[in-house]
Specification:
By secondary structure, the chain is of the alpha/beta class. It contains 11 helices and 18 strands. The protein binds flavin-adenine dinucleotide (FAD).
Length: 388
């Protein structure tokens, strides 16, 4: 039996629920919408962080905000105020509970917990198939399946940002909870980039992650040994001084994939599978917010979702060159980061990574880092540039 909806959202993660929230707060709030996910239980499994110069999305459930940031590389520590771009953190559990609560208060948004087996186009829209049902809609917005084109191709730089984090509770106050550590580079490794990322929730609690940019995942114990050593070296903490209250493992693609907006006709890719992860940084959450706004704006005005690429071409080119350097010459990448942090304010760097700069500001950033690695990257990736 097939049930008809206006829209179906396949996948209730960051992108699917952000889209549901945006629809609920738009002129399309009376549409019949189905949201399907294999697991609808909100869990404290992820944190989403981002910087923002204005009111942040989901401001009322921001878990923590920092106005100071620390970066550390080659023994040089930089602590800076974030005058324009405070750094925010949201917990996935708070986000999901907030959106579910809003959805439960309306009749026309339906949540179903089911495995999605397939999503296929039809002449009038698209069908979502589970093991015992099928549901049709004018459009399906999906964050579950990689586009066919990506499955068929091998990325030139198969980099992954992978990390394992511990949330810890210490016996004594050890953190300055007004400062987050964005990157404290591990200089004991040569063939990939790795750094510690520390989000202090309070003086006694925080999330500390060992983050790696490389092709290959590490053994779980390797990330954990690094975290344990760091806590000891930097804060003098032995395992008896803290409890690990939660573990977080994640993999985020950092790849120069071509942008594929449509999974199939009438089925739009959203979120990570919709190309919203910035290849050179892995940050996705804010870009998802822009994507869902664009989709709803398109549906409201033209009855057709806008499917624009997430980045202008010049930013895609910068990402490509930086990926090339990180992948092929990690030792050069460390030098690039060192100069970037030394010669620019973090606000300037965030503006650049958030793709809000003018060309003059781009040139200023570029002239602050060693140019030879970029000249090599431009030359060595010259064939790829035409595919952007
Ligand atoms: C641990 C972690 C931390 C991250 N931290 C940050 C951060 O700090 N800042 C940032 O900007 N980005 C971050 N990211 C990257 C990105 O923001 C997240 O991965 C984000 O969740 C992507 O949203 P999404 O909706 O595309 O995918 P997801 O949130 O993964 O949602 C996809 C949904 O689809 C469902 N699904 C998949 N297949 C099926 C199926 N066959 N049937 C039914 N349901 C299915 C899944 O259950 C899931 O709920 C992080 C990623 C990870 C993994």
């Amino acid at each position: 039996m097939s049930h008809q909806y206006d829209y179906i959202i396949a996948g209730a993660g960051a992108a699917g629920l952000s889209l549901a929230w945006e629809l609920l707060h738009s002129p399309l709030r009376d549409k019949e919408v189905l949201i399907v996910d294999s697991d609808l239980e909100p869990k404290n499994e992820k944190t989403w962080c981002f910087w923002d110069s204005g009111a942040p999305p989901f401001e009322d459930i921001i878990y923590k905000k920092w106005n100071q940031i620390e970066l550390s590389i080659f023994g040089e520590h930089v602590v800076q105020y974030l005058d324009h771009y405070p750094y925010y953190c949201l917990r996935s559990i708070d986000f999901k509970m907030k959106v579910f609560e809003a959805l439960e208060s309306v009749q026309n948004f339906t949540l179903k917990e089911m495995d999605i087996v397939d999503i296929t186009p039809t002449s009038a829209g698209a069908t979502l198939v589970t093991s015992d049902h099928s549901y049709t809609a004018e459009y399906i917005f999906q964050s579950c399946f990689l586009p066919h084109e990506h499955l068929q191709s091998t990325p030139n730089y198969p980099l992954v940002q992978h990390f394992l984090g511990w949330e810890i509770q210490c016996q004594k106050a050890i953190f300055d909870d007004s400062i987050l550590t964005l990157m404290d580079f591990d200089e004991t490794v040569d063939d990939y980039l790795a750094f510690m990322y520390l989000l202090p929730w309070s003086t006694k609690t925080g999330l500390i992650e060992y983050t790696v940019f490389s092709d290959q995942l590490l053994e779980k114990k390797e990330y954990e040994e690094k975290i344990s050593l760091y806590l000891n070296n930097r804060f003098g903490l032995q395992p008896i001084h803290y409890n690990i209250t939660r573990r977080e493992f994640g993999k985020i693609p950092m790849q120069d994939r071509p942008f594929v907006p449509w999974y199939k006709p009438n089925i739009l890719n959203i979120g990570t599978v919709g190309g919203r992860t910035k290849p050179s940084t892995g940050y996705t959450f804010k870009r998802i917010q822009q994507q869902v706004k664009d989709i709803v704006a398109g549906l409201s005005t033209d009855e057709h979702p806008k499917a624009d690429p997430p980045s202008q071409k010049r930013y895609r080119a910068y990402d490509l060159w930086l990926l090339h350097i990180i992948h092929n010459h990690p030792e050069e990448a460390r030098k690039v980061f060192n100069h970037l942090f030394k010669n620019n304010s973090i606000d300037e760097i965030f503006r650049f990574l958030g793709e809000e700069t003018t060309i003059m500001q781009d040139l200023h950033i570029m002239s602050s880092v060693p140019y030879l690695p970029f000249l090599h990257a431009i030359w060595e990736s010259r064939d790829r540039i035409w595919e952007i």
